């Protein structure tokens, strides 16, 4: 019975971390900013992710379509060849790459817990 409780708890935590409400997404928006962006907007329904593009000394933040979260699409849109980018699905998540690390860690911990509980 304890395994089942742990599995249900892990599934619950995973759902809370990765799901969002039905409200419109809010993202930071700044073009070629040398500092952390503080402006934010409510995205249109077509834009379903927040984007952060990191150039050498500048960052651009905006709303974006998840289907366009590819290196090719971002490079074409911003006429860039040397950059890193982040697409994320939660409100104001494009402020820094820490959300990506936190989400990956939370998912990994949840997956390991489920595997551990199933095989023990």
TrEMBL record:
It is a lipid-anchor; GPI-anchor. It comes from the Eukaryota. Gene3D superfamilies: CD59 (2.10.60.10). Residues 1-24 form the signal peptide. SMART domains: LU. GO terms for cellular component: extracellular region; side of membrane. It is found in: Membrane; Secreted. This is CD59 glycoprotein.
């Amino acid at each position: 019975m304890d395994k089942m409780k742990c599995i249900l708890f892990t599934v619950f935590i995973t759902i809370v971390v990765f799901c969002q409400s039905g409200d419109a997404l809010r993202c930071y928006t700044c073009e070629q900013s040398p500092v952390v962006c503080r402006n934010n907007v409510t995205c249109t329904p077509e834009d379903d992710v927040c984007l952060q593009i990191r150039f050498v000394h500048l960052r651009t933040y905006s709303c974006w379509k998840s289907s366009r979260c590819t290196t090719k699409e971002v490079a074409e849109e911003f006429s860039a060849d040397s950059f890193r980018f982040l697409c994320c699905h939660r409100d104001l998540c494009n402020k820094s790459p820490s959300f990506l690390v936190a989400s990956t860690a939370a998912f990994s911990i949840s997956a390991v817990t489920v595997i551990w509980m199933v095989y023990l």
